[in-house]
Amino acid sequence: MTDGLALLGQLPPQSQAAIRLLWQILPDARLVGGVVRDLLANRPITDVDMATPQPPEAVLHALQQAGVRAVPTGLEHGTVTAVIDAAPYEITTLRRDEETDGRHARVSWTADWQEDAQRRDFTINALSLDRAGGLHDYFGGQADLAAGHVRFVGDAVLRIQEDALRILRYFRFQARYGRGQPDGSALQAISSQVALLRGLSVERIWSELKRILAGPQVVETLHLMEQAGVLAEIMPGGASLARLERLVATGAPRDPLLLLVALAHQPRQVVQRLKVSRAESDFVQALLRCFTQEEKKLFAQGAGEALDDALRVLLSEEPRQVLLGRLWLAEGDDAPVMADGGASFRTVRACLEALETPEFPLAGRDVLAAGLPAGPQVGHMLGQVRQWWRAGGCRAGRVACLAQLAAVLHAQPH
Known about the structure:
By secondary structure, this protein is of the alpha+beta class. It has 4 domains: about 5-145, Beta Polymerase, domain 2 (2-Layer Sandwich), CATH 3.30.460; about 155-285, Orthogonal Bundle (cca-adding enzyme, domain 2), CATH 1.10.3090.10; about 295-355, no CATH class; about 365-410, no CATH class.
């Protein structure tokens, strides 16, 4: 018998105090979903969500009457957010789906806890915990969690048809909570309904895919997704699991954009389709720029002044994380110029991480102070000095750069 009150003791004191306060205001409410699942699994808690049979307007009123800040974050979906000590606690009225098109649902309220639990995606997410410590498990979620069995609630096809994003959520939860063979009926249902992904917004798809790429067991999970036909639906131009496996084998960081570049045959097309943010798109474009053959030869030679100079020049142009990402990709591809393979890459990365980012010590005002009038020539002169600075491995300081500026200006025809 699970001691629910003992489980609550795993929460930080601030969260425990907030939950006790909410239970004083809403005594029929229960903790639901991820918080119960992760308390049982003894995992870190990120969000604390509650459910209640009271309609959202009554929840809002009760919180306000008790002096708790209440935000109507989604009244049409039954959700009110209580803010206690700057932390949010979502409270959602028990619901039933009246109508759904695989993306959006029209809901109505219910007082039936099992009916609400039945509309959740997986059994391990359909658990609830009441204020007396009673654990409510209508579909065997606790046993599934203990067994590492990620299983849809009820009919898997119906759950997917209610919200096609559950296809991707299945793989994310399988990677985090699954053990052994994945649920056969779940994979069969996903394969039969995979075309429903076309009706989802690409923003929702990218949000889930990003979490899969950043999560555990990424290679195994992507193989499952390929077998179920999911990758073919969401990766225009195809996917290269072999390249991604090589990258992961190097020990590369689980940066989802880095892994996406390794996975996608056509990364530019993928980021355009998924409508990633401008910053994410820029990062991908930067990762796709290749090192020159001259740079690769320097890398293969290992540590030394020439390598430091080359890396310093690169750092003057591009962010360190971009350069490190490109090195990881190159190592995964096992560039043939690297005579001793991974050891060379480790040397280059260590040198890159040890270097300070060089800052060109002059600006336009220095050119003006040297006597050149404002105009296009200012940028031209500055560019010449900067080119000289880079040619010297970005080592020259301000005094040396000012002397070079004077020499460049002196050499100009009058």
